[in-house]
Design brief:
Radius of gyration: 23 Å
Distance between the termini: 34 Å
Number of helices: 15
Strand content: under 5%
């Protein structure tokens, strides 16, 4: 947590000192501002697109956003804390089976969170530097190579992985809920039935505005899940493999405490957890949106929002990961809820909360995947007829359901998606964009900005290395 705050605080202090120095020696000429979100305010780019000689650092400022800092923090935490957090105990179990393994895991969660927060902040500063209003336009305006279309594939794939994870969790959750009520329904049957009766009709809706409030249920469901897991850990309901509730689950899901503790983190299997975290923290595609919506979006205020939000997410991740792992050890499932008995009434309410949140937020994620695919295929908006959208909905939803029926390990999706897509979107692409933007500034770039390029590229190289090892380890789980 200290590392996270230090990185972002350093950036804020550097910008403030530089502003004070310039104010004492010269006055800045008027810098163009944007009237609304469609006309980006640029921090040191002239209206004709040229770099301004009298504004050498990103300061940020009143860009027309209306969201308060508290609103931004809440929405950012909501974007970060998703269903993927329920697979993190399995990430720890990939290298350890003793509760002490949760200690280095917590350090990894905090460290990866700090780096992810730095790059999230960097994307906001890129918007101030270039006048960009989205991840795509930041790539375009920074003149990063390869061409812009190169972004479409990982972004669309990221969205596909998101709804795939949703379907997998829903299949497991509804199957468990049926068992709670005394009905034996397989995971596959539950998923197909849910898809046909609920998900398909919702995904065919042309106006999803009525579903937006349900997104709040997501963070509430995760909070309830964390509390319930803590209760079950401390009350000893699953204290051993032969305890009361533990006897109601399959033997492979019962608590399994071994001897692989903290030192086991030095195993290459720890890269599975690291790459799962790249998926868990993967909200960076929306960083420009958050920056532009922030009222009086100075870089200092932006960094405060990012640091606070990621700190809350880090604590959330550590809590769920450590509680789940400490309860079940090496037996922690890719979806930790599967470890809990279907006769456990408290966890039954958790499953209901998670299922409710996912069903009504599924269409919101699905539309992003569908529209991203249309963008990748370069289908003009005027050609996106209702019939074409419906047909594409059938194809995507059918494909996702088929894959979710075949792949049952959520931790694989999390680790493989993080190793390939998460690392690219979080570490690699922002560094490339920042390097290009600073290069385009020429002599207007400060020494600090030029040095920061090395830091960003170091994180990019780290992301590539983690991705290569993580991909190999994730595929080894199949």
């Amino acid at each position: 947590m200290k590392l996270l705050s230090s990185i972002l605080l350093l950036l804020s202090v550097t910008a403030s000192i530089s502003d004070a120095r310039r104010a004492s020696t010269s006055s800045l000429t008027s810098i163009p501002r944007r009237a609304d979100l469609r006309k980006p305010r640029v921090a040191f780019v002239k209206s004709d697109g040229a770099w301004a000689n009298d504004a050498k650092e990103v300061r940020g400022g009143d860009g027309g956003g209306t969201a308060t800092m508290s609103n931004e923090m809440f929405n950012m935490v909501k974007a970060l804390v998703g269903v993927g957090v329920l697979s993190l105990p399995a990430g720890i179990a990939a290298f350890g089976d003793n509760p002490s393994a949760a200690i280095p895991a917590a350090i990894l969660i905090a460290t990866i969170g700090a780096i992810a927060a730095y790059n999230f902040s960097l994307l906001g500063r890129l918007c101030a530097m270039t006048g960009a209003t989205s991840y795509r336009s930041a790539w375009e305006k920074s003149s990063a190579n390869p061409p812009l279309g190169f972004l479409d594939h990982p972004v669309s794939s990221k969205r596909f992985f998101a709804i795939l994870a949703y379907s997998m969790v829903l299949g497991d959750t509804f199957s468990a809920l049926f068992k709670t009520f005394g009905m034996s329904v397989s995971r596959e049957a539950a998923l197909v039935g849910l898809t046909v009766t609920c998900l398909l009709p919702l995904c065919l809706l042309k106006d999803l505005s009525s579903l937006a409030p349900f997104s709040l249920a997501g963070i509430a469901g995760m909070l309830f899940t964390a509390v319930a897991m803590a209760i079950r850990f401390f009350d000893g309901s699953y204290a051993s493999a032969d305890s009361g509730l533990a006897m109601d689950v399959a033997e492979s899901l019962r608590p399994s405490i071994g001897t692989k503790g903290a030192s086991a983190v030095f195993s290459s299997n720890s890269f599975i957890l690291i790459c799962m975290l790249s998926t868990a923290y993967m909200a960076h595609f929306n960083a420009p949106k958050f920056y532009l919506e922030l009222e009086n979006n100075t870089i200092a205020r932006w960094n405060t929002v990012v640091a606070t939000s990621f700190s809350v997410a880090v604590l959330f991740f550590i809590g769920i990961a450590s509680m789940g792992f400490a309860t079940f050890g090496g037996a922690s499932n890719g979806l930790i809820l599967n470890n809990y008995s279907t006769k456990d009434s408290l966890m039954g309410f958790v499953r209901v909360a998670v299922a409710f949140a996912l069903v009504f937020t599924y269409p919101l994620a699905f539309v992003g995947c569908r529209d991203g695919l249309l963008e990748m295929l370069k289908v003009p908006k005027e050609e996106r007829t209702d019939a074409k959208l419906n047909n594409l909905t059938y194809i995507i939803l059918g494909t996702v359901t088929a894959v979710a029926m075949k792949i049952t390990d959520l931790s694989f999706i999390m680790s493989f998606g993080g190793a390939t897509l998460g690392n690219a979107l979080i570490y690699v692409y922002p560094a490339i964009m920042f390097r290009s933007a600073v290069k385009n500034m020429g002599d207007d770039a400060t020494k600090a900005q030029k040095l920061e390029v090395y830091l960003a590229m170091t994180f990019a190289a780290l992301g590539i290395g983690m991705g290569a090892v993580g991909t190999k380890m994730a595929l080894g789980k199949l």
